[in-house]
Amino acid sequence: MAFLRWVLLFLILALVASLLGFHGMASGLSEIAKALLFIFVILLVISLFFGGRSTS
């Protein structure tokens, strides 16, 4: 869940930067948030796939 916290942090920072007029910074922060979200989803799918198997 730490990845999800980072995604939310960068998303909030991007929104605040956009509201304050730092559009270049907001764009960069939103790209980081998108990349982290993509990594989070991939790790979630891998975890669900391999974690659901029983070894008995």
UniProtKB/TrEMBL annotation:
GO cellular component terms given for this protein: plasma membrane
Record-linked InterPro entries: DUF1328 (IPR009760)
Pfam family, one: DUF1328
Residues spanning the membrane: 7-26, 32-51
Keywords: Cell membrane, Membrane, Transmembrane, Transmembrane helix
Lineage top rank: taxon: Bacteria
Family, similarity comment: Belongs to the UPF0391 family.
UniProt-recorded name of the protein: UPF0391 membrane protein FLP30_02415
Species, as recorded: Acetobacter vaccinii
Taxonomic lineage from the root: Bacteria, Pseudomonadati, Pseudomonadota, Alphaproteobacteria, Acetobacterales
